[in-house]
Design a protein that fits this description.
This protein is mainly alpha-helical. The protein has 3 helices and no strands.
Length: about 80
């Protein structure tokens, strides 16, 4: 009986160790994915907020300006 209990305890310790390794690996994968997504998220957020800014402005304020001019103007006010 004691041998069986010890065997189960050893298996449980192995499972706990493997589970920790998997969790560590998943954490590293998630961290890598977040680092890869960050520039895209920043660009998407910039475009979203600039679109909202353009929508709030009167159309005449945007007339005759290039996209580059609008972006530079937005950067100054944001």
């Amino acid at each position: 009986m004691n041998d069986r209990i010890q065997e189960l305890c050893d298996k449980l310790a192995d499972i706990k160790y493997i589970t920790q390794q998997v969790q560590d690996e998943l954490y590293h994968i998630q961290h890598e994915l977040e680092e890869q997504e960050q520039p895209q998220d920043h660009a998407a957020n910039f475009i979203r907020t600039m679109s909202l800014w353009l929508d709030r402005r009167a159309e005449t304020e945007n007339d005759g300006k290039t996209i580059e001019q609008l972006i530079n103007e937005y950067k100054l006010v944001s």
